[in-house]
Specification:
The protein has 263 residues and is α+β, with helices and mostly antiparallel strands. It has seven helices and 13 strands.
């Protein structure tokens, strides 16, 4: 059902993305158009998932929290991760959908049990289910086998417009950059995490994110054999305020560099 909802919304996003280029030359610019595209994508996903699971709640980037049956899971949805890319006509953005189950004791929310990151332009569907592995379409995903930092490509999100911690980010960058083969900033955290799961990156760090940015991606990395923690090295069901993801061989090395940089 996640795949059906994402593909339906993705079809419209592809069509809207084709219009963005024409709007770049207008005085008003494409910002209002993109905001409407974001909202339309969310509405499509919401309608599809509500029809399939009418008693589940929602955490929506645009629409906020919609309570459901507290004994049932809830959906966590980012209808357009990489909005700035979309706005500027850069074909790197995704839809992220995750399902999170309540804790058995009723004290809040527990593990993410399913997640999907769908890239409409490449038609790539990265998905995972708890204990059942991570997949790209029907191909099983496994994190990269690289074991040395100097062979590794690391992704990040650079603080901007008041988001994130630029002082901490700079310290981490200065410590990590000399140790690795490259650092990339592509502007869509959900895809960054999906690409760690797919072995395209060896690791990823960022701060100041929201649950809808990372809920599906955290599960993807873990089900592909990697690790996701906060910057203290503590594993949370959803890491968002601080995220450090890495393959099984390099997460601890990345954490050591990051922790050393922030001392």
């Amino acid at each position: 059902m996640m795949e059906k909802a994402a593909r339906k919304a993705g079809q419209r996003l592809r069509r809207d993305f084709g219009e963005v280029e024409h709007l770049q030359v207008s005085r008003k610019g494409p910002a209002d158009f993109v905001s409407k595209a974001d909202q339309a994508s969310e509405r499509t996903i919401y309608d599809e998932l509500l029809a399939a699971r009418p008693d589940w709640g929602f955490v929506l980037e645009e629409g906020g929290v919609i309570e459901g049956d507290p004994t049932k899971p809830r959906w966590i949805i980012d209808p357009l991760d990489g909005t700035s890319n979309f706005l500027h006509g850069i074909p790197h953005f995704a839809i992220s959908i995750a399902a999170q189950e309540p804790k058995l004791d009723g004290s809040g929310w527990g593990d993410v049990i399913a997640g999907l990151v769908y890239q409409p332009i490449t038609d790539e569907s990265f998905w995972a289910e708890k204990t059942r592995g991570a997949w790209l379409q029907d191909r099983r995903l496994r994190v990269s086998a690289r074991r040395h930092l100097d062979e590794s490509l690391i992704a990040t999100g650079i603080p901007f417009a008041g988001a994130g911690d630029p002082v901490a980010w700079t310290k981490i960058y200065q410590a990590l950059a000399p140790e690795v083969a490259g650092i990339r900033r592509f502007g869509a955290a959900a895809l960054d995490l999906a690409w760690v799961a797919a072995g395209r990156y060896e690791g990823f760090w960022e701060s100041g994110l929201k649950s809808w940015d990372t809920a599906a991606g955290c599960l993807l990395v873990r089900e592909a054999g990697g690790f996701v923690t906060d910057w203290r090295g503590v594993s949370q069901p959803i890491c968002d305020v601080q995220v450090l993801a890495g393959n099984d061989a390099l997460h601890s090395k990345l954490h050591k560099v990051l922790a050393g940089a922030l001392r």
